Give the backbone structure.
Amino acid sequence: MMKKRKQVRLDRWKALLYKDICDLRWNGQVLLNFIGGIFLISLLAFVPEETISLSFLLGFIFVMLTMLMQGNLMVEEQEQWTIRRLKQAGFSFKEIYIYKMIVTFTATVLVLVIFSVLYGNHFLFSIKLFILVLPIMIIMLVAGTFLGIKTKNTIEISLYGVPIIILYFFVEGLLMNSSKEDMPWLVVFPNYHLHYGIDQLYFNEPFLSYFVVPVIWVTAVVAVFVSWYRNQNFD
């Protein structure tokens, strides 16, 4: 009986995942974000590395793909009134949101792989880079999920996501035009550690010290989001 129940649950999860993947073909905004992200990093691959930092380029992936794609996937269910039908079919809101996150996370990883190939990064460098970007990627994923829950359409996703986008690239701009000694207060931001952690990777030096602050950030962000989510009444 227990085995059968687990199989039914697994089949339900597979069905939901299959639905989300199939829906990607018809979601114009998500396809725009996905294809636009690939096109942008392909175009910027021809720009000299000393002109634009790697962390700045990665920001386009996190913003255009991870955050905005997640938000658009979430809000799509509300716009098409499918979220209520999924709820009536026995899926919880938590299950729906988790599978949206899995799809977005997978798409982001795919684009990161393409990014690594275009920039000629060797395998070990790419693995280290993925470890380094993982906290920021999760932060953007949570931000996209929050935007998707709180907004009603794709226009609001982009509108309310602007402050996060501005903050990220403002800090990146400061990092690209200063040294560690010029603005030491930037150390509180996670992309500061991504920026200088990538430098460590290029010099083949230890980088895990630049992993600590982003981990603290992602832990705090996830904790705040989970606490907020538990206080919501979605039913």
Notes: The chain has a mean pLDDT of 80. DSSP finds nine helices and no strands in the chain.
